[in-house]
Write a structure and sequence with these properties.
alpha+beta; seven-stranded antiparallel β-sheet; globular
C-alpha cells in the first residue's frame, strides 16, 4: 500500500519513556508546556471512578492539542508515565511527538511509541528518532504496516 495512504490511517499513538527511564512527567509540567503552545487548550484531570471494580488505576490528564483547525484529544499519565494522542494520522502524531520531544521530554532522554493496533498485536514499543517530522512519519508508517490493521480506502 502507498505510504501516503498508510500515513492517513487514524489510530491512537502512545508515547512513553524508554524502559527503565523516566521523564519526570507531571500534570502541572505537561499543562504548563501545553498552555505555552496554545493558551486556550482544554485540560482536565480525570480520576478513576471510586466504585470501579477494575484494578486500581491512576488519574489521567485529558487534553486538547490543536494543529491548524483540528483539535485532537489526548491523555497523559504520571504512572505509568506517558502521553497519547487519540484518533490521529501519522502527520499529526509526528507534530505531537515533536512538541513532546522539544517541550516535555528532558533533553537527552528517549521516546518510544506504539499504536493501539500495535498493542492489540503484542508488538513492542519502538524507539522514536526525534531527528525530523519526516523520520517520525516514516517510523509510524512502518509500524502501522507491521500491525496488519490497514484500512481500505
Amino acid at each position: 500500500m502507498d505510504p501516503a495512504i498508510i500515513a492517513q490511517q487514524r489510530v491512537m499513538y502512545l508515547f512513553c519513556p524508554a524502559e527503565g527511564n523516566s521523564w519526570g512527567l507531571t500534570f502541572d509540567g505537561f499543562t504548563t508546556a501545553l498552555r505555552e503552545r496554545t493558551p486556550e487548550e482544554f485540560v482536565r484531570v480525570r480520576e478513576p471512578p471510586p466504585a470501579d471494580p477494575a484494578p486500581p488505576r491512576s488519574p489521567r490528564l485529558a487534553f486538547g492539542f490543536t494543529i491548524g483547525d483540528e483539535i485532537l484529544e489526548g491523555f497523559a499519565k504520571e504512572q505509568p508515565e506517558g502521553a497519547a494522542i487519540l484518533d490521529s494520522d501519522a502527520h499529526s502524531a509526528a507534530e505531537f511527538a515533536l512538541w513532546m520531544c522539544n517541550c516535555v521530554v528532558p533533553s537527552g532522554l528517549s521516546v518510544t511509541f506504539i499504536t493501539e493496533w500495535g498493542i492489540m498485536e503484542g508488538l513492542p514499543f519502538t524507539l522514536l528518532s526525534a531527528d525530523s517530522r519526516d523520520a517520525m512519519v516514516a517510523a509510524f508508517v512502518d509500524h502501522i504496516e507491521s500491525t496488519g490493521y490497514l484500512l481500505d480506502e
